[in-house]
């Protein structure tokens, strides 16, 4: 009987504790969307570096068998179509051409000699008979083989002479476009041994912006993201555009900050990924100009605002919502979702939240419409040590 009374009392105590835990008087901790968005890689207001580059790039190769005598340009120079870039050593080219022409004349003489020999042998064969006639026939066939070989060698030598004449006539290589010399590779390879063109020229008049994001910012900028570019010398000059490509296939290694006045990538050897922005207008831009870039904002709402996916809830009909603070109370707020990034488990919020909002982590017991909110982070609970049983050693 006593046991039943004890169980009933324990049940009442448990129900009382449970009811207290679900009480609407319990304040729900809410967190800043601005801070949470920073967890996604790029926080609102962050700036990072951009460079005006050409959408079209021309690569000039050089003949590895020839010697370059003089280079007329350097990296960073602006060039016009038809302007001289570099010249081959014409003295060596002329010597090569003279030698090839001499060899061609010798082959012509050999061919005429073989033809003359064949004609003579054929006449002499008509004056003999028996075994001597057979010997003349064998000698004629052998000479005919030598003639065919000489004629083939002559065709090859003719092609060599034509190529050398063309190189000599075009010993000075000129620019095929108006543009800026981006690089000159004397070694012909990069740091990893990959082949490089001798001269790379960026075309004038076809501008786009190149930026980079770090490993921690993967997914923060995606194809279609709207970007604002601001002049580093005149903040009143600004351009807008749309990201057309985030090139995860060609990362580069490096260290340093991606941002100026914003978040930084603290991974000293993390990968950098280039992305490219197609501009709405290129008026006033200069090839090679350095810019500040930031995600485009409109009326406080950030395009591409991303938060941890764990803060997003779904109704039975599939509509998304978050628990947001409004006037010190909790409300169930509908949001419009964008792209989900599985790399860091973040969800893009297109509508429904701004950087000034505060939201709560979903909790089935605490999150209710009208529940009071607090922005003070709750203190961590210290673990409770259970008393040791009799005879038990710690």
Describe the model.
Helix 3 (90-125) runs antiparallel to helix 4 (131-169). This protein has helices at residues 2-21, 33-39, 90-125, 131-169; strands at residues 28-32, 48-54, 57-60, 68-71, 78-79, 84-88, 172-174, 179-184, 199-203, 207-214, 226-231, 238-246, 252-253, 271-279, 290-295, 297-298, 301-302, 305-308, 313-314, 320-326, 329-334, 336-341, 346-351, 358-360, 373-374. The protein is of the alpha+beta class. The strands form six sheets. Strands 1, 19, 20, 21, 24 and 25 form a six-stranded mixed sheet that branches. It has a six-stranded antiparallel β-barrel with strand order 2-10-14-12-11-15. A four-stranded antiparallel sheet has the order 3-9-8-5, with no helix packed on it.
Protein traits:
394 residues, alpha+beta, six-stranded mixed beta sheet, 4 helices, 26% helix
Number of DSSP helical runs: 4
Cα separation of the termini? 37 Å
Written as H for each helix and E for each strand, in order along the chain, the element string is HEHEEEEEHHEEEEEEEEEEEEEEEEEEE
In percent terms, what proportion of residues is strand?
25-35%
Main β-sheet description: 6 strands, mixed
Q: For the CA atoms, what is the radius of gyration?
A: 40 Å
Q: What is the approximate shape?
A: elongated
**How confident overall, as mean pLDDT?**
80
Q: Roughly how much helix do the residues carry, as a percent range?
A: 25-40%
Count of beta strands: 25
Poorly predicted runs are: 1-24, 255-268, 299-303
- Helix/strand class: alpha+beta
